[in-house]
User: What shape does this take?
Amino acid sequence: MPRPFLTAALLGLAALSPALATTTRNFSPALAPVLENSRDYVRVDELPAKSLGKSITDAGCNPCWGQVVRYTTFSTPQQTYEARRYDGKEVVLLVPVDHPRAARATPERIRTLVDQYDLLYAVYEELLGWRPNRSRDPLGRQIAAILPNDRSDWYGLAFVPGDSAEYVNAVLDEPMPDDDLIGNVWVHELAHNFDPIGHWDYGPDPAHDWTTFMQVWTARRMARMDDNGRSRWDRSEASQTTQRWANWFANPALTWQRCAVENPRPQDCRDEVNTLTGVLMATLARHVDDPATIRQWLRTVRTDPTRPSGAEARSDYLLRTLADATRTDTRCAADHFRWYRGPGLDAAGQYPTPFPGCRDGDGDGFRRFDDCEDTRADVRPGAPELADGRDNDCNGIVDERLVREADFGGDFSNNGFAGTPIGRQPVAVEGAMPTTSDQDAIRFDNPLPVGRAQVRLCATGDRMRLAGLAIDNVLWAPLATAEPGRCASLGSNDRAYRGFRVERTGTTSGSASWRLEIGEAAEGWPRPRPVTLTAAGDNGVRAVVDAARVPGGTAGVELRWTGSGAGVLKALPLSNPDSLVAPPLPAALMDRSSTERLQLRAQLFRNGLPVEAPTRPFSVNTEGFALSPGVTVAARLRPGSSEERWYIDVPPGTTRLSITTSSAQNIDLYAARIAAPQPAAAPPLIAAAPARSEANARATTASGNETLVVNAPAPGRWYLTPVHAGSGSEAAYTLRASLEGTIVPPRPGSYFNPGRPGHGLFVHPAGDDWAALWYAYDDAGQPTWYYLQGPAPGATAHWNGTLYRARWDGLAAQLHPVGNAVLSPDGPDGLTFSYNLDGLAGSEAFRPLGRGCPPIGGGAPVNASQHYFDPARAGSGYSVQLMSSPAAYEFYAAFVYDAQGQPRFVVAERTGAGARDEAVPLEQIRGFCPLCVHSPVVRRSAGSLRRTYSAAGVLETIQLQASFSDGLTGSWTVTDAVRMLDPRNRPQGCQP
Assistant: This one.
């Protein structure tokens, strides 16, 4: 049977209800400034030699992961501080030991930053065939140093070119690492480091010309790595290129001489078309048929000893070398963009074919530069928009309907918190403002979700400003400002908007008008990637490729596998089936600290350039882990080494334990039993296997194909220890354990560790699967939760479920696999919960939280313990545990999200059996992370949960009014018509 429950329960459409706040907030992008308008770089040739000396003390490790070093900044005022060093293959991340955002420097975020920075470095190096001279780090890596403080004058600062960048401490507040993404500032500053082509950098702010090209074309278009504040990458690209050219074409006063040569550059040039050279390069590169041609163009110019002098000669040189690279006549590009065209460009005339962007393939009078679909004459700028699934007028929105103010009584509402309802998007709205005091507000039936907005504001007669009404009823402004005769786009939206307000902010008298074009991108956030990694049946990792999502198709595509700190481990054509099988991580990496997340990723390349973002990581555990009966695992051992933490929990009723290994080299096998884990307060770390002398059974032949059979094994934890008894090369082996007997599986219900109260597990049937919700705490002690799903236990009574972390995009949940868990029965009514979470393993004994059926409403016992959700608001849900012994009790856990989209839980519980319709106080809990030392939980009031049961004892509705505090923000106010997650409606039952 298919498994629809991940979709039904956690990936459906949902919406937050508005809170009571009705205040206006000015939206100040303090954490993502327009870096092109600031001096965020330092040219190496301007620095004294002392500043280029070693800046990091040697910690005596290579590679390092968390060791403390001392770092001296190149920024002024100079400061020296202690930092923890985290090494990738090419980069080193420095995180201060003492700083105000220590809670945000979680292991997962650090791992993301190091891995993604490493991958971005490789993309830039591949493009240029060049790397900065890395001299400031004694280990020779590219430095990315986070300061222990914030600055008011810059956000990120980099050498141009060079081996170092520094970031204010506020970068740790950026949400991108939580989605396994690297934010704009990291992409931007590393682009500064990779700026060796000085003769293309001209104008008042030359380094940002180059950086714009590297960001827009390389990182966004090719690698899809810079999502710039959680926006869709192509919308960010449009705001960087298309919009700037729209301003350029609309204003004849913006000339090449004024905007590229004059110094200081006139203010209108800085406002409208800053970084003009980089935008031109990125736009031209978009229209080159083979991206590898751009790479060859850049590499040729980088090594060219020619150094043209003066802006005019440099301009001609840029377009002439592009002509040589593409074998086309680029003079038309100079004409189209009003670029300088001098005698140095005449040589481009030797090529009879015009540059691709200059061609008009469909004969509709518009060049490909401006035509969004140059194969259809009915699709062009200014064409009538038709309901045909195409963007006929090339405004970036498909099938928008036209709404005029006259259609709604002649004047839109001026109340930004209400707004005139205009229906659904996509829509093009036109309004008029006869006076400077007029305002127009509109409201949609369906809010625009996070990361999906396509919004453009155009103004006529006066300046217009756009404000957005978020779903929590907060008005954010300004989102965009359009000058008269111009348009401005909303490049990103990190909130879900249910309406907009347009207001006049200029000083022009008389009537003015505006046009607001609003659409919604088809894909949600985070954007689905064409390659995902999944666990294979042999405990390996495989890549799954969605060919429909591969830009340009799969022909000629290569799949590259990379490992944390190891770089490329394997690269094969996608046409080779073996390309989908992950390589093992090198033994040197597997020997590193078990606190480090070791991760595999895969990425698609064509002609040496990435065509899509790398996959989300697949964590590879550095230790052994719980085995599921009948599941084969594959691993490797160096000569003389052993794996000390493979184990299988053998439950009562087992009559036979069989263990086999398979290897081409000599692998010995030992099996040793210890007692089953019992509830305890100690961190649930997995101990190493007993000494070989204590083994209950062993197989030590000269072969690698060993078999051990233990009849009537005593219940408990059985360690299965393979040992590489040979010499020479590393040994690949498989290990498999099987159980036989009459084994009773764990009972569905709620479980917790009485020695570590405060976290627990709800597990219940869901069709042919079991689904579980694990409520726990993150490294900062804040409440979080994970979702598990896997086939229901079979004859061996063990349950193996994939472990997912959820993320909320404003309207829907996204799930990311972060490990797996094994549940094994250890007695009449208990289980052992073993998990692999982000590469860290733990195991603890759980016992029932409670059972039974209390007489809610004073009637018959109510049998309602199960998982619940509202299909209209899937992605959130509830787990319910009712109890009747030793006394009636109700427990409800609500699995929701905070304002940042992070998964959070709140709980409601009461003693006694209440009325059928009753409110229960809601609490937010601070606790301990899964592998942390246990500490008593701290409870805070969080609102109320009202549950309603029918006369037949069916849970029908849950009304939640939750507000987060204690370092968390946001609220969750909903009324859910709930139903069981299990389509067969199987509650826990009333058995004690």
Notes: The chain has a mean pLDDT of 87. DSSP finds 13 helices and 50 strands in the chain. Residues 686 and 842 are 6 Å apart (CA to CA).
